[in-house]
Design a protein that fits this description.
By secondary structure, the chain is an all-alpha fold. The chain has helices at residues 2-5, 7-17, 25-37, 41-57, 61-69, 77-83, 91-108, 113-140, 144-165, 170-173, 186-202, 207-225, 229-247, 251-262, 269-272, 280-286, 303-328, 334-341, 351-360, 367-377, 393-414, 419-449, 451-498, and strands spanning 349-350, 390-391. The model is unreliable at 1-10, 15-23, 292-301 and 326-331 (pLDDT under 50). The protein has a two-stranded antiparallel sheet. Helix 2 packs antiparallel against helix 3, helix 4 (41-57) packs across helix 6 and helix 11 (186-202) runs antiparallel to helix 12 (207-225). It is built from 23 helices and two strands. GO terms for molecular function: calcium ion binding. The chain crosses the membrane at residues 422-444, 450-471. This is EF-hand domain-containing protein.
Amino acid sequence: ITEAFGQEFQALLPVLAACGTGRLDALLMGLRKLAVEGQRMKYGDDMMLILDLLTLVGMNKEHFYELMNLGQASILPSLVKRLLAHVNVTPELEVLVNKLFNLMVGICIEAPVDLLNTMIAEVIDTSGASSLVQFAMKLIKGEERMERAADQLIKSTRSIAQQAAEGKSLSQMRLYCREPNGDKAPIDKIMEAVMDLLLPFLGEDLRRPIYSILEVLTDLYELSTDPSPNNLIKRTPYIAQGIATALNVPQHNVRGVFALASGDWEEAVDLCKPFCDLDPEVLHEMMRFLPTIKSTLKSGVDILGNIKDRVQEDYLKTRVRQITGNVSEKKGTPMDLFDLVDLDRNGAISLEEFRMCTIRLGFNLGEHRLMEVFSKCKKDVSDSSDQGHELSVEEFMQALDYLEHKVATISLTMLGRSLGWLMFKLVYLCVILLLCIVFIWLAMTAFISGGVFGAIVNSVMTIGTGLSLALKDHKDNASNEDQKKLSSVVEEIQDMVMNDQ
């Protein structure tokens, strides 16, 4: 391994061993050194940017206060440098953006009011008179976007201030929830207003990266207020996508760093591939060294691993064990099926959830088929937010019964059968059974009594046996043709049930 990587990797090992209670930055600094020596500068810069985002993910109040007391220019220096690399900016504007990022992080972690006031004052002082005058002039000139953004920001700020005066915390304000009328969430309105106001100063090419960072911060804030398993599964892809979009780096690099932070060494192999052209087996052997530095990952960055463990232990394993126990004891309840289908845990089954359920059951129903099931089983559509597009537990069970009955009816119709035909067959079989009993009684009587009556009965039964065998041969010859017809009918049924017919 040392020969493959050179002396740089050998020099990195003592640094990792000496980290002790350090953070993941020591490891990534070593990776950056390898990238520099290997003429892969952009990859090394990407690693530093991902480190900044991981630092923000694991941010806590104590860490934030420590950084502020040290007087660092920014919590995310590499990120700000990447965002401003595409435009010609002055050092003053770069410092201003740094302080704005500090202020956003302080708001997200609910820093003390005195500290936030100090940071706001620093932002105003750093902005300078020229930029404030330029901003005011754009408002006075009456640009529609600026006026609309300023008005939205003032309304949102007034609403937040009013809720804060009522004693509500940030988690109680539910800034990330949609309005009752279906409008955007307050946090989305604030983000759009801020971006519209900053657009004249930053330019169009920086709008998407900065907006992606704000989206990541919003997702992290929502995850901190609702750390449920479903919310974690729902938000994690958006967080990873936002980080990759903001930093303009491949998503597999982001996944590799997250896997490294959570202890998934096998997945982290891809993170080291750009450094050399080693054989995959050699890379896997290199991963044997990584568990020795696992103790250095117990900083704030390890929050993702802790959430992952909590999800597995507190919810998934318990739920799987409960359902498995019910199945093994043959005590499965309708609520078990309902809970498995109700992915968003809102107590109702939506159209999309019911469609996924039918697919897992072997059906691929069209839109009008789903609406037919809902219209047959929906009892109460008085709720304006429902519109008949959600099913309760009782309605969900009725929908499954209706679907089963519908498929059975269609199948019998395509086969040329009906419920009346089935009843006729049942009566016919009962009559045949009764006749068999009568014939058995006659045979026993003829055998015991003998004479003319017995001879007649024995002759009739011999003739009947021959006729039965001949009839059986005829039916066997016709069964093959019936089987072919049945196969074609079954295919037609599948096409009709599975497709929009």
